[in-house]
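Notes to self after the Tuesday call (sharing in case useful).
The group wants a holo model before anyone commits to mutagenesis around the pocket. I volunteered. Ligand is 9Z3. Logging inputs and output together so the record is complete.
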Amino acid sequence: MTPRSPQQKTYHTSNPVAETAIDRTIPDLPIAQLSDEDKYFRTHKAPPYLPEIEQQVNDFIEYHASNTGKRIVLVTSGGTTVPLENNTVRFIDNFSAGTRGATSAEYFLENGYAVIFLHREFSLLPYSRHYSHTTNCFLDYMTEVNNKVEINPDFADEMLVVLRKYKEAKESQSLLLLPFTNVNQYLYTLKLMAILLQKIENKALFYLAAAVSDFFLPQSRMPHHKIQSQAAGKLIIDLEQVPKFLRRLVDNWAPSAMIVSFKLETDHLILIDKAKGALDRYQHQLVIGNLLQTRKKEVVFVHPDGSEVWIRLTDEQKAKDMDIEGLIIPAVIKEHSQWIEKYSK
Ligand code: 9Z3
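Result:
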């Protein structure tokens, strides 16, 4: 199996740009107030490869609109980095391996969706995730017979199932892999995707499982070269808050799409309140709450009407090593169908 498609390249962090001047000369109107989100995009340069991605995504949307009529889900997956230097040697990262995103993408594909998989480069990918980042090396799935490499028969049946699904996704052109590494690349790409997906209106679904950093170092303050250790005995890092982009996504970038975000906490006492707070603030359709410690076994769906629905693997399902995404995705799809129906009336 070839785990990487040609779309995946290594892109480089962009250079800082000077702030664009605002015209404040217009009389009789309150001085224009830039939102934090607008300020962000005015003061941070877009990744240079963005036009290439735009073309690929346009083609993907066009293909499905004209040929298959499939709904399209944007799945975000894995953690964003926060570079500390422009020529990046050091960066801040988070724990996410991309399991939630990669597994969810498989279930969306199985349920007839086309998937744009916006993922942290080198994090887990749909299908190949079964054979990478595991305790086993992929070579453990192979065996030597008469001087030739073959799949170890112990794994062959399981691998055949995965292989068929992978081929089906590829042949039906239903999976588009797009990478990001740092939070700037993530934000620019998310905004672009949202604007392009406006074409299919409510058939677009946003499933935001990526672990996005809350703090970052603005490009205007980022040293060009590697920070030198001789210069100071201590390194003090002064980070800004990443603007809350979800409101922009809901109101401006993707006003017709259904938007699902994840809320991650480690303290179970605050999870529900934080999920409700996100819905209040961003006014989107669904927050899926999860705790770091139990995220693979249970999640909670929190809705704007205040309802909370827990989804849990049963002991039997746990024993069979079933993915919780096998329960999450059908439930999300059901809500997306209701959203489409409501919006189409
Ligand atoms: C999640 O909560 C995901 O479920 C996980 C998946 C990151 C926990 P893994 O990749 O983990 O399977 O190991 N994603 C959202 C995390 C996040 O950054 N949420 C923000 C927040 O909680 C809102 S967008 O404030």
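Two things stood out.
Residues 1-24 have pLDDT under 50 and may be disordered.
Residues 96-100, 208-209, 211-212, 261-264, 290, 295 surround 9Z3 (CB under 6 Å).
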